[in-house]
Amino acid sequence: MLVREVMTSPAVTVAPETPLKQAVTLLDDHQITAMPVVDDAGRLVGVVSEADVLRDALMPDRRAHERLVEISAPPAHLAVTDVMTHLPMSVSPDDDLSQAVELLVDTQVKSLPVVELGRVVGVVSRRDVIAVLARQDSLIAAETDEALRAAGLECTVDVVDGVVHLRDQDDPEVLRVAQVIAARVPGVVGVAVGSSA
Length: 197
Fold this sequence. Notes:
By secondary structure, this protein is an alpha+beta fold. It has six helices and seven strands. It folds into two domains: 3-132, CBS-domain (Roll); 137-193, 2-Layer Sandwich (Alpha-Beta Plaits), CATH 3.30.70.
């Protein structure tokens, strides 16, 4: 499966000069954990995340301390550029989704900007991948069956826990092509030839 088949597009983005309060509101309104920061041409220049905006966002509450704590006012009029991550990681829409997931897991980043020809075209997040993996077996089976019929291939399709089982086809070449087609269906975690029992 490719990143383009799962990514959210268009991406919610902000400019470096966007006020921090506005960025926080966008994160909340869209229920996202991070946003690409883009220049006027739509090129990726950074990422601003929940962690970036939370850092130093709250003043200490004097009621929670035995001794009075000194409260220093945060800098006025902070902009996204003051807190964003510079040099962010990104992926291409034509990258293998499994490699993007590996990057998400290994780096503990929750979402990645998707960049094509230098411009941000979407975002792929852990939540996007979870939504695909959570698809019901019946939907996966119907979509797999439809894709095989569109390619002129005859197989019986069963899906159990996201694994597609292809049956009732003896031609090895047809089965090989059918496996490739089935593996592209969103939510498929594996393809097997033979009974699902």
